[in-house]
Amino acid sequence: MADFGLGTMSHTDEPEKGSFYVLDTNHSVTKKMSNVSISNGMAWSADHKIFYYIDTPTFTVVAYDFDKKTAEISNKRIIINIPKEDGSPDGMTIDSGGMLWIAHWDGWQITRWNPDTGKKLLSIPLPAARITSCAFGGDNLEDLYITSAKIGLNNDQLASQPLAGSLFVIKNIGYKGLPAFQFGSQ
After folding, report:
1. Which of the listed residues 90, 132, 133, 155 has the most CB atoms within 10 Å of its CB?
2. Is 90 a known active-site residue?
């Protein structure tokens, strides 16, 4: 069964005050992780056997073995270390080749990574610092939609990045996304 994952965080940005939960199709909620600071990027491998997860302040992407039938996660391992100069890892998606795409808060970019090697494959600069997430869309899942934020930017910062807070689209990016899970589907 396809379950629904969700993370919490402190309203005052206190570290490790959040958790990660799974809502199953019977509407039961189970805590899967504690001591989370900022739940952000989540993605599953095409075969649904690996769950990828970002807790932003750790500057890492971790992988878990994922049991689709029970939504159990196990065997936590760090697969990607994000250099701090690249900006904080935020939202994430996966392409049909199994590569991870990561948005970088205060990093002015989207990056593409190989989760098997931990190597950065591509960096796409953007005209805003606070890149928040990315997702494939369009008729053939070949367009990359990228969100950004302008919260917390001062007037000088806003003047230097007038597109902050915009939605960006890169048409026909050269990669294809995976169809989204539908809650409750097999």
Report:
1. 90
2. yes
Q: Where are the domains of the chain?
A: 4-170
Query: 116 to each of 63, 80, 135, how far by Cα in Å?
Result: 10, 9, 21
The span from the CA of 151 to the CA of 135, in Å, is 21
Task: Determine which one of 24, 65, 86, 90 is catalytic.
Answer: 90
What tokens does 136 get? Answer: 């494939």
Residue 152, token pair as written in the block = 């917390």
Question: Other CB atoms closer than 10 Å to residue 145's CB: what's the count?
Answer: 16
- Pick 4-170's CATH classification: 1.10.150.20, 2.120.10.30, 3.40.630.30, 3.40.50.300: 2.120.10.30
Tell me how many degrees the CA angle 84-166-41 measures, rounded to the nearest 5: 45
Answer whether residue 1 shows pLDDT above 50. no
Residue 90 annotated as lining a ligand binding site: yes
**pLDDT digits 0-9 by tens, 85-99:** 999 999 999 999 999
DSSP 94-152: EBTTS-EEEEEETTTEEEEEETTTTEEEEEEE-S-SEEEEEEEESTTS-EEEEEEE-TT
